[in-house]
Amino acid sequence: MEDREPGNPLGPFEFKECISLVKSTGKKARTLRELRELIALVGDESIYYHTYQYYLRRQILEYNNDFAHWAGENLEERALSEYFSNVDPFLFKDVADLRKALLKVIDDYLERFPEPREVTPGNEFYFNEAIILVFPAGLRAFNLAEFFIAIKYIDAPSVYYHFYEGKMRLRKGIDDFSKWIEDGLGRKDLAARIRSIDPLMHTLEGIREHINEMVEEEVKKDMEVMPK
Amino acid sequence: MIDEYSGIVPKGDLILLQKLGEKMKNRSFLHINSTRGGGGVAEILQRMIPILVELGIDAKWEVIKGDAKFFDITKKIHNALQGNPETITEEMWEYHFEVNRKNAEVYQLDADAVLIHDPQPSPLIEFRKGGQWIWRCHIDASNPVKDVWNYLIRYCEKYDAAIFSVEKFAQAMMIDQFIIPPSVDPISEKNRELREDEIDETVIKFQIPTNRPILLQVSRFDRFKDPVGVIRAYQIVKKYNDCILILAGSPASDDPEGELVLRETQEAAGNDPDIYILLLPPFSDKDINALQRIATVILQKSSKEGFGLTVSEAMWKEKPVIGGAAGGIPLQIAHGITGFLVHSFEGAAFRVRQLLNNPDLAKRIGENAKAYVRANFLITRQIRDYLSLWYSMENEGKNILEL
After folding, report:
1. What's the average model confidence in pLDDT over A155-169?
2. Dihedrals φ, ψ of B102, to 5°?
3. Contact (CB, 8 A) for B280 and B248
4. Under a CB-based contact definition with an 8 Å cutoff, are residues B51 and B382 in contact?
5. Residue A4 — very low, low, confident or very high, per pLDDT cuts 50/70/90?
6. Which of A69, B23, B62, B240 is the most exposed place for a label (fewest CB within 10 A)?
7. Would residue B165 be called left, alpha or beta, if left means φ above 0 and alpha means ψ between -120 and 50 degrees?
8. Residue B143's pLDDT is what?
9. Are A134 and B142 within 8 A, CB to CB?
10. What is the CB neighbour count within 10 angstroms for residue B253?
């Protein structure tokens, strides 16, 4: 393989992407209490699907997971939706802790507010899980300039795979992009800036845009020369 | 044929199709449904089978053969699954099974994967000779007639997996259930890009003025599509914004209810020269395409709906769509982002006015709508999902599969 960036211990960045095949658990909640019972009961895969994997499907920035989305759009309990949205899945060491936090949101809400109504048929919360298929995105970057071009052209699910799934795989808030930029290219500052992008506050396109701007600035700096 | 999709659909879908094609090379994939022409299932299969073959998969499509009595029974089963009161007698179930048994003698049911579409051929599972068997339910079976569902499920639960279009259409079953939405074909006659002269041809044919904003609903004259509600919405809008309304649908010659709804619609329209009620013959795909492309705002004000793919068809043309919050429409329209969801004709009127008065908003929503359909509701995504499901069934127990 051609090495256009000698000295990079990680080799080129191989862009991957993923799709999710949605599997129904057959479980659904009509009320907040039923939602609580089922959050306590369903498998980790289902909690994962409705929280971390929400970012692959998210269109409305107001919500940060399917529970917040359901509370806002179907149950029409705005405050509950805000509490759910405030749960940052990346702060928990595992799904078990995240599940506890979600249950606490409901318990606190039921203590402080009147019991919400039952939703109309068709508006229930449906518990799903997903099978993820990971595959090469057909792009490879040897250096930052190539990375800068590639990040513009990859599909949005590739941003999800490397930025969100990466944080879950690598833990400690580290995504695939910043890891390669730091460990492969030795650019600590740029890596730190990418890691500072708040994953909860952007759509996939927003994340792409931010990374793109940061990398562009860095590439521009590399190219700048003082005229003699 | 796959090349035709290049540059139109997400590149990732095409890469994954190639990858899955390599994995399933020369393996057999049999689809069985109940008709070769007419309806969304046949439309998708017509395009999908050649693509699967091009990927190197030995894909075949068979159609179950039966007489009028059989299809009368299966129509009743279909209606019962959608919640209409129907009684299926023991004799009718036996006939349903018997026709399937005869069909089973003809087909090679030893494919590596068999995908059975809808209830008509579902008893074929009794004649399986190996492979992975999947039952694909295209119907909204969320509220079926219990007796009918309880009988049918005897067959369905013998499959290895079931597929529903929307999670809320599914039923509790003992087998794995997957959610795979239907899709639109971006290069079909109904959705392909049209040249100016092709659009003009339709405009001239129906004598539609294009100097004012156009509101459009394409649907059968069916009460659940609420064409009268669309006229009421238009009449409110008309007080504020000059515009025309087009209601385009097929004539309902075999449907007395449809005739009645059409009459009610014509009465509601009165003698307003700016309301165009177009009765389009079958195979009017190009005209529908052109009407959608000249429209300013497209409505699908359904009060009850299956998936409602006409919404995605309109969104694909970068149009802001106002849809009733029913069936699969909320899955396609994120309120305020890729369109608007409404619950009344007053709501529809309000959103039309908002869009007519804010062309930038209409443009932004239209762009979001097209991007959303591109990512989620194109045919390549549906084929990719079928192959992914087959592949995942052969790798049971794994939640992450790397190709």
Report:
1. 93
2. -65, -40
3. yes
4. no
5. low
6. B240
7. alpha
8. 87
9. no
10. 9
**Residue of A21, A123, A152, A161 to mutate for B, most B C-beta atoms under 10 A:** A21
Q: Do B401 and A60 touch (CB under 8 A)?
A: no
pLDDT band at B105 (very low <50, low <70, confident <90, very high): very high
Query: In this complex, do B16 and A133 lie within 8 Å of one another by their Cβ atoms?
Result: yes
Among the listed ranges A98-107, A168-177, A204-213, which one has the minimum average pLDDT value?
Answer: A168-177
- How large is the ipTM? 0.91
The neighbour count for residue B374, using CB atoms within 10 Å, is: 19
Is the pLDDT confidence value at A5 over 80? Answer: no
For residues B150-170, b (16+ Cβ closer than 10 Å) or e, as one string? ebbbebbebbbbbbbbbbbbb
What domains are there in chain B, each with its CATH number? Answer: 2-183+378-393 (3.40.50.2000), 196-376 (3.40.50.2000)
Nearest CA to B310 out of B216, B195, B193 is that of B216
Where on the phi/psi map is residue B339: left (φ > 0), alpha (ψ -120 to 50), or beta? Answer: left
A88 CB-near residues (< 8 Å, 6+ apart)? A64, A200
Contact B100, B355 (CB under 8 A): no
Where residue B291 falls among pLDDT bands split at 50, 70, 90? Answer: very high
Question: Is the CB of residue B178 less than 8 Å from the CB of residue B162?
Answer: yes
Mutate to test the interface with B, among A133, A139, A161, A203 (most CBs of B within 10 A): A133
Contacts of B366 (CB under 8 A, 6+ apart): B315, B318, B319, B320
* CA A11 remoteness from chain centre: 25
